[in-house]
């Protein structure tokens, strides 16, 4: 009987810990070095937000805003899923956050699968999403969806592109092959004379993204694998793949880089284990 009570107490404490970890925000710093980065962008920092899913760190996201302001970024990139994609969804949390951010920083917003779900033509189309988009445009948010924006600094620029891949590439239990030509049809061919940042919410197609020509890929979607184990990493992906390869952190291939955020919130499985919400601060360095 004693063993049972000890086990019960352990389980209760563990679930309390996992719940509290949803709000235990961590800032991680990444330095990306490349000779393709223009001199004017050397030592320029920006912040990446991903998978907020209506989560709030303190009243009106005060703790999140304070950490962003402390990082003092030149601009902000959103790598998808600020919302929870369902009909009659709540957009108040991201709207309140973006209203404050856009007063201080340029914001470049790439959609994730949750925004795609409730957009016109999505499987959970929500008329309220149209109001959300209208408010974003009024705030001056750059909606980078299958488009490319050039960010200028002095006499140089870098390109930032966001790709909205089809819902079939988010299917559970099955990974569909993605061809480079598919990306080219969606967003065109990148200018290889420029440093190209690609917002691509689902990281599992890293090889295709770099074959397309991305110097730096910014992703999220996997929530760090929900739970993380020492020396192993994330346990499961939203596609129910065990121990996904691109779970979180920094990945390199052929001199190109992908950063995968652990995300800032949860939705279906509202728990994290050894997997704190993450605010990414990225600094570009020219060697």
From TrEMBL:
Higher taxonomy: Bacteria, Bacillati, Bacillota, Clostridia, Lachnospirales
Highest taxon above the source species: Bacteria
GO biological process terms, semicolon-separated: lipid A biosynthetic process
Entry-linked Gene3D superfamilies: 3.60.21.10
Protein name: Calcineurin-like phosphoesterase domain-containing protein
InterPro entries: Calcineurin-like_PHP, Metallo-depent_PP-like, Metallophosphoesterase_sf
GO CC aspect terms: membrane
Keyword presence, Transmembrane: yes
Every Calcineurin-like phosphoesterase domain range: 46-224
GO molecular function terms noted in the UniProt entry: metal ion binding; UDP-2,3-diacylglucosamine hydrolase activity
Keywords: Hydrolase, Membrane, Metal-binding, Transmembrane, Transmembrane helix
Matching Pfam families: Metallophos
TM annotation in the entry: 6-25
